[in-house]
Amino acid sequence: MAFDLDLIKKVYSEFEQKVNDARQLLGRPLTFTEKILYAHLTNPATRAYDRGVDYVDFAPDRVAMQDATAQMALLQFMQAGRAKVAVPSTVHCDHLIMAETGAEADLKQANTESKEVYDFLASVSNKYGIGFWKPGAGIIHQVVLENYAFPGE
Predict the structure, then answer these.
(1) Mean pLDDT calculated for residue range 109-137
(2) Please, are residues 151 and 107 in contact by the beta-carbon 8 Å criterion?
(3) Which of 40, 57, 65, 150 has a CA 20 to 30 Å removed from the CA of 108?
(4) What number is the average pLDDT over the span 57-72?
(5) How far is residue 60's CA from residue 22's CA, in Å, rounded to a whole number?
(6) Where are the alpha helices (DSSP H) in the chain?
């Protein structure tokens, strides 16, 4: 299990107060999604946000990246000059595996065709403290749910 108990305690210790502040600001009960979003604002809300109109900055608890888009995200991160990631992060190699003939053959083909990408992602992950889930380790959505997610995160 990859649960970060300190992260879970931090999220829950602040969650109720942040939700109560948002509820008071909006003057109504909140949906579960609103509770999560308002509890993860970079700065406390000073007004209600309008869906589809306002831009809002969030401070995520975790970042999960898949192999097809993590390449660009990590190249940009490398330019930021940071020694390691600020929040727990993972790379999951599942999107470059084409489902064509069967799991074993498809994985072998992906490991051949995308070797350079996988090597780059593994190397950058290792350098910056990012968890790396190699090809065949599971589907990102399920891996995150089973290993990292908890209500409110």
Answers:
(1) 97
(2) no
(3) 65
(4) 95
(5) 17
(6) 5-26, 32-39, 67-78, 103-113, 115-128, 140-147
